[in-house]
Amino acid sequence: MFGAPSHGLGSLPNELLFEVLHDLPNDALCQLSLVSKKICRVAQEVLHRSPELSVSQYWEEEKGTWMEDGRLANLLRTFINRPDLAKVVQRLTLSPIDRSVRDRSSMMRDIPPETAAVLGSSRINVTEPAIVGMILQIVPNLQELSLQATILDKSSYKHRYDEKKYTPDLISDMFGDDTLVKWKDYFYDFESAQIAGLAGLKKLRLATGELHWSWCELPKLEVLHVDRVCRVELYDVPTTKTSDSILELILERDTNFLFEGYESNQIRNLLSKFTSLTTLTLRISNYLVYCPYHHPSSRKEAFGFGSFLGGIAEEEQCDEFLSHLLDTAQTLRHLEILVAEDEHEDGSFLQLLAPVASFQLPRLTHLKVPSEMLIRCNSDYITKTEGVAKRLLPSTLTRLEITYPWMTTADLLADLSRDRDLFAALEEVVIHGSSVRGNANEQLFEQQPFWSELEGNGINVAWKD
């Protein structure tokens, strides 16, 4: 007699079962892991492909204090006990707080005695950033990493844009001598590029107090995302230091960087070191935090928010901050300049800047910018637009995207349609109309002659809300 046929998820091959479970939420995966040993193994692998741990603290109302939730320590213990799960980790999102771990019991439970002895030693200060460093040492196939490292103190309620909230030197906290000297034999090497979880890293997002050049030297890193709270200070980096692996940079800054000064020079220095950069996304925020070290007259406990328009002189050129890109001109293919826009942001500072004289980027194929950078949005300034597209835009463009459209943008696009022979590579023009700024709408634009002229020349024109 043959046994009863097997049905359900348990009958599927592991490869197919993985595909079935891949898109399920974590809660469902936890429930399914209780069904059988086979499903448990696959569900655990899916769960550990992309662990995501937010700030590891919670407020205990009865005790009136912040409490640890122990998730970082538990994750480390899991990877120590289950190297097979550590090997499947491809993406990590971690938010350590720069503080000592008081309760180490969950971290030491069921791990090898020699490792437990080190972790439990009172002579060793185990911090959350140090735990992150240990985790990174034992996840050899990690490809994407997102780190937000903050400081827990009496000012922990600072706004997320306040740079004083973030750990100033995460590299030292994770791999520095104070931590490393006692952990070296157990967890990591001295060279960050030799750390297992960083050796093959391809994408990195940092929300820390400072961008340390060591991150940029990771051998396989292709995409670097620098949060606006992350200071760029390369004063101690030799001019000969460069990176040829980073292909894409996402750089978030506030409007202060638009002006000549220390930060502006540091950004130029950073960009000059990326010798193979092909894609740059610049996200500009005009939402600044008012705090005592910026505004001494404020009350010490007062933290407010506001937009910064002061200091921008009428007729200042957009070319001032485009000059940051000169060292990447020969490699850059894709450029996006995005202006943050929500209930607190104010993008009207763009109207105080004169448009770009010319995008001197000879290999650019994709450009996405606000309309104010291309042409005057104020009708009082309208001048002759014929020939402006030829002067302004590279002939290599295949896709042009314009945000915050004003009706004067139609003049630029009309000029573009007249120079079809020059812009023979252009395939698509996209106008983004979902904005509180601008005075144009889809109906008005579709009625303009340039729309049918561009489409008649084989260029797709699209309006996106």
From TrEMBL:
Start and end residues of each F-box domain: 6-62
UniProt cross-references to SUPFAM superfamilies, sorted A to Z: F-box domain, RNI-like
Domain of life: Eukaryota
Stretch forming the signal peptide: none
InterPro entries documented for this protein: F-box-like_dom_sf (IPR036047), F-box_dom (IPR001810), LRR_dom_sf (IPR032675)
Protein name: F-box domain-containing protein
Originating organism: Lophiotrema nucula
